[in-house]
Amino acid sequence: MEKWSLMTITVLLALTVRWTVSLGSYSGAGKPPMYGDYEAQRHWQEITYNLPIRQWYFNTSDNNLLYWGLDYPPLTAYHSFLCAYIAKLINPDWIALHTSRGYESQPHKLFMRTTVFVADFLVYIPAVILYCFSLKETSTKKKASICALCILLYPGLILIDHGHFQYPLSLGFALWGVLFLSYDWDLLGSVAFCLALNYKQMELYHSLPFFCYLLGKCFKKGLKGKGLVLLTKIAGTVVASFAVCWLPFCTDMEQIMQVLRRLFPIDRGLFEACMFSSPPPCCTCSDKVANIWCSLSVLIKIKNIVSPQTQLKLSFAVTFLSLLPTCIKLTIQPSLRGFKFALVSCALSFFLFSFQVHEKSILLVSVPVSLIINEIPFMATWFLLVSTFSMLPLLLKDGLLLPYAVTMLAFLSACLASFSIFEKTSAEDLQLKPFTLSLKGYVSWFKSFPKIVRSLFLLSITLMATLSLMSAAVHPPQRFPDLFPVSVSILSCLHFLLFLVYFNVVILWDSKNSRSQKKIS
After folding, report:
1. pLDDT in tens, 197-211
2. The pTM is what?
């Protein structure tokens, strides 16, 4: 009983924070003609309910793809249809074809917020709770509840899902996949990840760790025996899962190709979600992405000197090379711990170097980081704070300054109280002991390592707090209207590059993976 009473309090607190944030503004409120992501989700309900499936992804007189055209996989469309069916029962005007564009009312806002709340409660939150109870490091009831509380209080996901407006289903399904794999339920894990990928194509950020981990397990079992059987079962499960999700669109090849064109619009170019490459250096776009291409384009106008096709090839090459060491290590030495760290490293590589990145995509890195907060609480807390800070321009645009400040402080306080993060800054606590042992003459320098790390953390927090205050309260110079958003993105990008190096060092020098292979084989 005590176990569940502690967890009940944790869940109630997490739900209270989410509902409180949802009472505020949302993306694009009162800003015609396009409004924002809230209107996009409502419009998809309008389209999926009123039009036949074959028209969902095609440009027609009833479905103008330039106005929030559906550009996510079939599972998102089915979810929109389900929400629309319920909305129709409450108030048909909410999803009336054409006439419901930009519909805004308090009852409709309550309905839309509730759909996110229910999705969070049914999919994401249960996965977090069960995951925390599955961890060996959180074998006691209190530790599991504390770990769950810190994960559920992560401000980035709360602010985007319940403030900006977004559904947590793809990340929830991916988390269920991780949970199933931790119990060696490989087929269920494969199904869960297929659902995640068929809800949002950005789950490709996590696809290689899932693939390499499962393939590595098959190799260890032997491809002439049990390994081949497992590989066949996994392949069949994946094909069947995709077939079920895509079945209504398999009537002809043109349907499939149109959906794929909507999911991967490569013709838009590298900077579809980032316009730093356009003069002046501080642009007036709304999406300030803290990845390498957008940061470099403040100084080097990549868009003007490199063709779109070359941009695509360059992005692919850099992303692939940054992923390669981690994926090879995970395939050769598959372990659950290595898999979770690979989810972080690979997703961060995709965010920093891949094609058409949105600032919200950092959540695809943050959720895996939250899964290892019990192993490296100091670095995980630091990363999760930076990831939320990197979305500050978007959050300010949505009027979420107060929720941003409160949830950031609440999360930091929870981590300080739960994990005593400042006491866990030694090389061993940061999982860097094997790396330090491989360096010659490391002894004298690493004696002051904890102090250096703590100083860098405090400097980072100070810079983020200063930029947050300036972004909210200070008018930028007239010549550089986006000085603060660009500064936020560049500072965040520098953090992410250092974190990428750190996570790769932990993965490649990890000796625990070798020992844990025996359990798999």
Report:
1. 999 999 999 999 999
2. 0.92
